[in-house]
Amino acid sequence: MGFKLSMKSHRIIALILFLSASYLYITSLSIKYLPSIIFPRIILMFIAFLSLLLFFDIGKITTDKDSFKEDIFVNVNYSKLIITIVSTIIYVRMIEIIGFYSSTFMYLVWLLFYINKKKIKMNIMIPIGVVTLFYVIFKIWLKIPTPIGVFI
Amino acid sequence: MYEFLRIALLNVFDPVTLIAIATGVTIGIIIGALPGLSATMGVSLLLPITFGMDPSVGIPMLMALYCGAMYGGSISAILIHTPGTPAAAATCLDGYPMARRGEGGIAIGFSLIASFCGGIFSALALLFIAPPLSKISLLFGPPEYFCMGVLGLSLIGTISQKNWVKGLMSGSIGLFIATIGMDLLRGIPRFTFRNLNLLSGVPLVILLIGLFSVSQALIMIEKKITENVQALKISGKILPSISELLKIKKTILRSSILGTIVGAIPGTGGGLATWVGYNEAQRNSKDSHLFGTGIPEGVAASEAANNAVTGGALIPLLTLGIPGSSCTAVVLGGLLVHGLRPGPKFMTEYGDLSFTLIISLFVANIFMLLIGYLFARAGVYITKVKDEVLAPIIIVLSIIGAYAIGNSMFDVQLMLFFGLIGYVMRKFKFPMAPIVLGCILGPIAETGLNQSLLISRGSLSIFMTRPISLILLILSVLSLGSAIYKDIKSK
Questions:
Q1: What separation in angstroms does the CA of B430 have from each of B41, B168, B442?
Q2: Total domain count for chain A?
């Protein structure tokens, strides 16, 4: 499944940017003190203007030819991407519950097993090595704080 | 100045600093050699490690990594025809054909020597240009700061961007992100959505780590087909002879000058410098028809230029507080974390640290030459590391980095949010550097505008009546106008 970086996708991005800029502009109306809000409003209006240029491709000056030749999602494994993002979100939530180093070990083991299914030894040794190295560098040597949960 | 130099020499030649610089160079070469990892990413990942260090140790370490990464990109460019960093893209053109002919070793040698020469030249330029330039920048007042912000934004939005609309869009998004939080002059919260964590705004380092590191990790992990790349062997001698080097001395010098100039322009960096150096070398060479077939001159031209960016990019940072590249934007973030704000008074108030940075660049380049030579043949093993193994580790390092800023999980969540934004923007070919520079220039421009209007009682003529600000405004208009004109003409 591919997704050509066509005029259509540019228009979608332009529309998202235009709507976001408009929403933020409307949000700014609640700030009554004008000198504080004039600069951000000018920027938001400029973003809206640029997104209109992108949307309508005014005078064909906004597009670069290379963008339309490339299928940007043709070599993308969507499930790998989504699972990585979801795993990362869960991992971040777990850090505060379990602790940074414990949850990092589990995260790395899970993700490496998911990506490299057959390489069992590597999928265990790398997380052990990485977490140990990080523990030595950040906890022992540099004393950089990390979240602590039930475990370390 | 001599007193600052004396202290700087003592700082740099301290054993701890020397070890830090050597470590930075080594990590930089490794990161640079790994395709998919950029120098900016490497510097932003190493940044948290410097939090616990003295700035006179930590910041040189970051710059050393920058130097090392700029050279390291040539290793994979030469051995597997894939630039390790965008700054090594032009090196592929002649480096890989040389490696295919069995001259991989000597190609790496030319790259190393040229990188060293470019780096030393830019360090010399920094040493001699920065101090007098910082005196000129003391003449800057609020109108000049505003106009400088406008010029910086017009440059970053248009230079090196194929699509100036996307470049300006990225810059504007960066400007907007900088307005989140309390208004600097009046303390009124803006766009915080009643979240107390956003009152102090979006920390620059969080933005950098998210945009550059997390987005890159996602791009590395998303690939459906993982190519099994076979790196070419490094055989034969590594170091070229003196006579071989003397044949290309003009090319190395020209590229070093161009790289330093490009580096000094905000929003550019090694990616532009490498092509400028390569194209100019080809244009001025007697053997221009041989470029692309595998000649040392091609390798040396691109590598001297990209390493010359390192010193050049520090010139605007130390004198005006504006980073010349996204890497030096991270260095700026590192300085801010230590409570130091680069700007016109930086070289006088923190002269010892400024000169420490400058002298450390010389030392970093010397270490790069030594370490690069010693481990040249090991480069083939670095290129074998898989993206899918590195990507999760990069995410973990990014999380440590984000948490270490303010011991807050909100910062981690914000960093991941910007990582997703960065991923989407990269897929749709929006440049990243303008966002960062917009974020840095935004407060400078806004504060300058507000203060100028207070001084002039609301009159905009203040920007036209002061010579420096008028010149800066004219340059902004010319820069934007020429980009639009070039784009229209090419269609």
A1: 17, 10, 19
A2: 2
Write down the residue that tokens 């050509």 correspond to: A4
* Sign of the Cα pseudo-torsion (A123, A124, A129, A134, in order): positive
Helices (H), A70-149: 78-98, 100-115, 120-134
Taking CB atoms and an 8 Å cutoff, what residues of chain B touch A66? 162
Q: Tell which of A115, A128, A132, A148 to mutate to test the B interface (max B CBs under 10 Å).
A: A115
Q: Which of A33, A52, A69 is the last residue of a domain?
A: A69
Q: Do A115 and A60 share a structural domain?
A: no
Residues A54 and A83 in one domain: no
Amino acid at B168: L
CA dist., res. B272 & res. B256, Å (int): 13
The Cα of A16 is separated from the nearest Cα of chain B by a number of Å equal to 12
The phi, psi pair for B309, rounded to 5°, reads: -65, -30
Q: Which residues of A touch B420 (CB under 8 A)?
A: 85
Q: Are B312 and B324 in contact (CB under 8 A)?
A: yes
pLDDT in tens, chain B (491 residues): 778 888 888 889 999 999 999 999 999 998 888 877 788 888 888 887 887 788 889 889 999 999 999 999 898 888 877 777 878 888 988 998 888 888 888 999 999 999 999 999 999 999 998 888 877 777 788 888 888 888 877 776 666 556 778 888 888 999 999 999 988 777 888 998 888 888 888 988 888 888 888 988 898 888 765 555 566 666 677 788 888 888 889 999 999 999 998 888 877 777 778 888 998 898 888 888 888 888 999 999 999 999 999 999 888 888 888 888 888 888 888 888 777 878 777 877 888 888 899 999 999 999 999 999 888 877 777 667 777 788 898 899 889 888 887 888 999 999 999 999 999 888 888 888 788 888 888 888 888 888 888 888 888 888 888 888 898 889 888 877 877 777 667 66
Please spell the DSSP secondary structure of A63-81, one letter per residue.
--HHHHH-BTTTTB-HHHH
Contacting residues of B for A44, CB less than 8 Å apart: 176
Looking at the complex, does the CB of residue A119 fall below 8 Å from at least one CB of chain B? Answer: no
Q: CA of B405: how far to CAs of A139, B24, B204, B212, B358, in Å?
A: 15, 21, 10, 17, 26
pTM value? 0.81
Interface predicted TM-score (ipTM) of this complex, two decimals: 0.90
Q: Where are the domains of chain B?
A: 2-490
Question: What is the C-alpha separation between B95 and B309, in angstroms, rounded?
Answer: 20
Domain residue limits at A134: 78-141
Q: How far is CA B224 from CA A1, A69, B348, B350, in A?
A: 11, 20, 53, 50
Are residues A31 and B190, on separate chains, in Cβ contact within 8 Å?
A: yes
**Same structural domain for residues A91 and A126?**
yes
Cβ-defined contact of B400 to A134 (cutoff 8 Å):
yes
